[in-house]
Amino acid sequence: MNAPLLAVDDLWVRYRVASGDVPAVQGVSFRLERGASLGLAGESGCGKSTTANAILRLLPPGTRTEGSIRLDGEEVLTMRPGRLRAVRWTTGAIVFQGALHALNPVRRVGHQIAEPMLLHRTAPGSRAADARARELLEQVGLPGDRARSYPHQLSGGQRQRVLIAMALACDPDLLIADEPTTALDVMVQAQVLELLAGLRHDRGLSMIFITHDLSVLTDVCDELAVMYAGRIVEDGDAHDVFATPQHPYTRGLAAAFPTIGDPASRLAPSGLGGDPPDPSDLPVGCAFHPRCALARDECRDGVPELRPAGPDRSAACILVEAP
Ligand code: ADP
Ligand code: MG
Prior knowledge:
Layout: E1 6-17, E2 20-32, E3 37-41, H1 48-55, E4 64-71, E5 74-75, H2 81-90, E6 92-95, H3 109-119, H4 126-139, H5 156-168, E7 174-178, H6 186-203, E8 206-211, H7 214-220, E9 223-228, E10 231-237, H8 238-243, H9 248-255, H10 263-267, E11 307-310, E12 313-315
Parallel strand pairs: 3-8, 3-9, 6-7, 7-8
Antiparallel strand pairs: 1-2, 1-4, 4-5, 9-10, 10-12, 11-12
Helix pairs in contact: 3-4, 3-5, 4-5
Bound molecules: adenosine-5'-diphosphate and magnesium ion (MG).
Magnesium ion is lined by residues 48-49, 97, 178.
C-alpha cells in the first residue's frame, strides 16, 4: 500500500471550558509514511499533546474536532467506538506525557504489560501474554524477570521502558511518544532515545516523537514539524530544520540549547523571551509577532500560511523568501 500510514488534514481541536472554547489546534496538516518518524516540537502550550491525543481520539468528552485524520486508511474522527478501541493499541499506541507515575503501584509490571494483549486478544491466554511481556521487557533493555517487579522497585528510566514495552504489547504500526524523556536525567534520556530509534529500525515502526527540545528530535526523527499557538509554523527534514531554521520562532527554539544537567533549563528555553499566547486570546495576525525581533507592521495583517521555504521545507512567515 502506498497511502501514508497517517494523514492529518486541516485538523482543528476546540476544548470546551466554562468561559468558552479553547482552540488548541488550528488547521494542522501533516503526513507520516510507513516506517518514518516525525518530530513535533514547540514550547509548552502550543498544541503538541492535543494533536497527538486527537490521533487516537483520546480527548476529553465535549471536545470538538474538525478536519480529517486517516490512520492506515481509516478516518479516525468518525470511527465507531468498537473499532476505535481495536485501533488503539493494535494500530496506534501512545506513551503519554507525564505517565511515569501512571503505572498501577500494586500490580507487577509484567501483568500490566500483559493486560492490553488479553484485552485485545493478541495473545491466546495469560501464560502466553506473560511470556510475551518478558520478551518485550528484554526488547526494551530490561531483564525479563523484571516482570515480577512492582513499579516502586524500578528507577524512572526503567519505568519509562516498561511504558514503552506496554505501548508495544499489541504490535502497533504507529508509536506516539509524548515527551517520554522530559522527567529523566540526561544520560537516561539518551538511552531511552537510543532504544526508540532501535525499535523503530528493528520493527519498522512509524513514530511521532514530541518534545519542546529541538536538538533531541534531530537524533530520532526524519522530519520535523514546529508548532506555535496551535499551528505548524515550519516543517521539513529534521536536520535541515535544525541546521537552518527559517521561521524566527524555530530559530529561537534552535538557539535555546539546554544546559546539560540543569533540568530547569530544559523547560525554559533561553533563546526566546516570554511565553506562547493563550489559544483563546491570540494576537492578531501572526501569533508569534509580539515575541519576534523581526516583526513589522505587515505581520499584524493576517495569519501567515505555510509556504515553500526550500527543498521539502515550508515556513509560515511573511519574511521567509520563497526559494
Ligand atoms: P503542548 O502539548 O504543546 O504543551 P497542549 O496540547 O497540552 O500543548 O495544550 C494546548 C493548549 O490547550 C494549551 O493552551 C492548554 O492550556 C490547552 N488545553 C490542554 N488541555 C486542555 C483541556 N483539557 N481543557 C482546556 N484546555 C486545554
Ligand atoms: Mg504536551
